[in-house]
Amino acid sequence: MWGVVTRSRMKTKEEIVRNWLPRYTGLPLHAFQPHVLLTNFQSYLELFCTLTGAEIANPSANMPSASCEGITMINFGIGSPNAATIMDLLQAVPVRASLFLGKCGGLHESFALGDFILPVAAIRHEGTSDNYFPPEVPALPTFNLQRATAEIVQSKGCDYWAGTVLTTNRRVWEFDQHFKEYLGRVQAVAVDMECATLFTVGAYNQIANGALLLISDQPMIAEGIKTQESDRRVNLQFAERHIQIGIDTLQELERNASNIRKLRF
């Protein structure tokens, strides 16, 4: 006789996310730190461990993670459904701030590989965020978190471009001239697959969140489309600086006890 599977009843969102967050990340709830770095790349998570001495909790987890003092980094994967999932699951722990370190395609010819984009808003072209707010609600990062990130970028002797990012679920579009023309009409400075969802679901769950994007390709021109080799070069040249800025930003926020989600002018 086969063993009997017992079922636990979870009726509330709180019960679900508290059960699922450790299962997805391999990290027990008590080990989560109040400041979270999000990424799409296992190489970023491994480099984070090299820089901080942290260890990946469970390398085979669906969204592997690692924690050092005050900061947890999670590789949640690619795309807006995964972005929504992690922002929902993070409700299980008291997150003070969440910063996304992602890559994007730069849409202006003046941009260069390795430049930073600091999104001031994101166009909701992905569809996932429609499950949380009506389409007329803008996707905005937490202003104070973006301001803190900007200050750290500049303190490192770097600069950044600021503007609106378009977030799409469409992964292969670089051949489509009509879509490229659309990107020009909406005046997006970059294109990615997660920001609008992170901003929207973060706002829905009252989690302060922002993003610092690294330009990894220039998809508006044929020679700028990302390849395995070009992405490798971008990682070698710029990934460590990207991650270190994220770490420094969250450490600065940890030292500053002000409320990130409240504005005072």
What is the tally of helical segments?
Answer: 7
Determine the strand fraction and express it as a percent band. Answer: 15-25%
User: Which whole number gives the mean pLDDT?
Assistant: 92
Overall geometric form: globular
- The helix/strand class is alpha/beta
- Please give the number of β-strands: 8
Order of helices and strands: HEHEEHEEHEHEHEH
Characterise this structure.
The protein has seven helices and eight strands. With 265 residues, it is an alpha/beta fold.
Put the structure in a nutshell.
By secondary structure, this protein is of the alpha/beta class.
Question: What labels would you give this structure?
Answer:
265 residues, alpha/beta, five-stranded mixed β-barrel, 7 helices, globular
Structural topology:
Elements: H1 13-25, E1 35-39, H2 42-52, E2 65-68, E3 71-75, H3 80-89, E4 97-106, E5 116-125, H4 143-155, E6 160-168, H5 177-185, E7 190-192, H6 195-204, E8 209-217, H7 228-255
Parallel strand pairs: 1-3, 1-4, 4-8, 5-6, 6-7
Antiparallel strand pairs: 2-3, 4-7, 5-8
Helix pairs in contact: 2-7, 3-6, 4-7
